[in-house]
TrEMBL record:
Transmembrane segments: none annotated. InterPro entries: Peptide/Ni-bd (IPR030678), SBP_5 (IPR039424), SBP_5_dom (IPR000914). One of its GO terms (biological process) is peptide transport. GO terms for molecular function: peptide transmembrane transporter activity. Belongs to the bacterial solute-binding protein 5 family. GO terms for cellular component: ATP-binding cassette (ABC) transporter complex; outer membrane-bounded periplasmic space. It comes from Caballeronia mineralivorans PML1(12). Residues 54-408 form the Solute-binding protein family domain. Keywords: Signal. This is Solute-binding protein family 5 domain-containing protein. SUPFAM superfamilies: Periplasmic binding protein-like II. Pfam families: SBP_bac_5.
Length: 485
């Protein structure tokens, strides 16, 4: 395909592992389809390829108090929705307050529990008032806190009408949608950043990683993402293809559940000590991502290289023995993992089950769909520990362990009351140095309790035609409006 083809004769096709759960982006807080959502909808604050918050629709933000309860933001005055309506502070208020109060079923509402009111003193000025300090509000506004919605259009067509024909202010407009198959987009010429280089883009939903490899190799896709690492490297050696392997600021971990055998601290810690993380990194990722002992990945503020959790099978067996288990009398657990959603996810889970078996843990491995994980995690019904890639495009620790371990939040997996005394003070700490140091301590405590098992930093893989100027993001996002033709 020549560069000129992207002038309009053929779409740029991306083989992508997941679909959107809904075209109402406030329904579910889902990191997997972020690349699709961010193509159609703007978030208030932008996050660049290095994971740094930067001006977007919001040009500047500042705290107006010393408690983290009053946040003032300035908006651009040249942002248009796809239907031509101008984006103003009223749309901001509708997105982050009015709509969430009108429909308590929206998952994004769980993020803004502390929001008391929003003032709109002018079309380009917003003041957010919080009931309690929310020092990470800017990070949530840039990541999963909500995609900006058009009040007038939504109120005219209703929720069902919006889902049928969504309107955002992002760099692309939705042209056609076939669930679990194709998402066809066209560039929004009046986007505030300017028109994208690729006028027409198709996200082809291809859940099987082998099929994504075949698609780009056969020329059926111009870009394929979330591929097995070895296949990514091999494809990059094909004359017409390039490839990228990017260690990300996300993290592979095992979510623990406080039900069944993992209510026993000895079992949780034994599961952790039994895992040879370096062997996993070597076997599946060619030693590219770094092994992690706490929740913060390298490149994020709370990364803590001084803390190391040992691979120690002998200690794992000793802990199990203290609870009455052994190789002859193993503890039995259900173990869940995604299959093909992230690079080598299910294969890595198989290797972990073998490591556990070697010390006296029999794990029944079962695949889980991303939609199943989110619904069961929210309901507290996950049947066992789950291998997961926790995505956090902002890099802020509150949006990782501060969320999945917070028993008061809507995104917690492990839930026990002893977490809150350790975590709650950090949620209101405005001094950034103290906050980050506090999170390092919280991470160490949580790992020593066995409440989550961090494994390694995430990895994003992509193969693409060399005529595509592909830009990798440390968040792992695939955003065609940042690429060059």
């Amino acid at each position: 395909m020549s560069t000129g083809a992207w002038a309009g004769t053929a779409p740029l096709t991306i083989a992508f592992p997941t679909d959107v759960p809904s075209w109402d982006p406030l329904v579910r807080v889902a990191p997997n389809p972020i690349s699709i959502y961010r193509s159609v909808f703007d978030t208030a604050i932008d996050i660049d390829e290095k994971g740094v918050l930067r001006p977007g629709v919001v040009t500047a933000w500042r705290w107006k108090d010393t408690e983290g309860k009053v946040l003032e933001l300035d908006l651009r005055d040249d942002v248009l929705f796809h239907n031509g309506d101008k984006l103003t502070s009223d749309d901001f208020k509708f997105t982050y307050f009015d709509r969430l109060h009108a429909d308590k079923s929206l998952q994004v509402g769980g993020i803004w529990w502390a929001l008391d009111s929003i003032e709109t003193p002018s079309p380009t000025r917003v003041v957010m008032h919080f009931k309690a300090p929310m020092v990470t509000a800017p990070a949530f506004l840039g990541y999963l806190g909500g995609y900006l919605m058009p009040r007038k259009y939504f109120e005219r067509v209703g929720a069902a009408g919006f889902i049928a024909k969504p309107v955002g202010s992002g760099p692309y407009k939705l042209v056609d949608y076939q669930r679990d198959s194709r998402i066809t987009l066209t560039a929004f010429d009046k986007h505030w950043r300017g028109a994208s280089k690729f006028r027409d883009v198709v996200f082809q939903v291809v859940k099987d990683p082998t099929s994504r490899v075949s698609a780009v190799q056969a020329g059926q896709a111009d870009v394929s993402g979330m591929l097995p690492l070895r296949e990514t490297v091999r494809l990059g050696q094909v004359g017409t293809l390039g490839s990228k392997v990017t260690p990300t600021i996300d993290s592979y971990l095992i979510h623990m559940v406080n039900s069944g055998p993992t209510t026993d601290k000895n079992v949780r810690l034994a599961m952790h000590h039994a895992i040879d993380k370096q062997a996993l990194v070597r076997a599946f990722f060619n030693n590219v991502p770094a092994v992690m002992s706490t929740a913060a990945a390298p490149g994020t503020p709370a990364f803590d290289p001084a803390f190391q959790f040992a691979h120690d099978p002998a200690l794992a067996q000793k802990l199990l023995a203290a609870s009455g288990y052994s190789k002859d009398k193993p503890v039995r657990v259900k173990f869940l993992a995604t299959n093909g959603v992230y690079p080598s996810d299910f294969d890595m889970a198989r290797a972990i089950t073998q490591m556990w078996k070697n010390v006296g843990i029999e794990a029944e491995l079962t695949p889980i769909e991303t939609a199943q994980f989110f619904s069961q995690a929210v309901a507290g019904t996950l049947p066992g520990p789950t291998l997961w890639l926790w995505q956090n495009g902002s890099g802020d620790p509150e949006l990782s362990a501060g969320s999945y371990l917070n028993p008061k939040g809507g995104f917690s997996v492990w839930r026990s009351p002893d977490v809150s005394p350790h975590l709650d003070p950090l949620l209101v700490q405005l001094d950034e140095t103290k906050r980050i140091e506090g999170y390092k301590g919280f991470h160490r405590w949580a790992v020593n309790e066995g409440y989550s098992l961090p494994l390694m930093q995430g990895i994003a893989t992509a193969a693409y035609k060399k005529t595509v100027g592909y830009t990798p993001f440390l968040s792992g996002w695939m955003l065609p409006d940042y690429w060059t033709a």
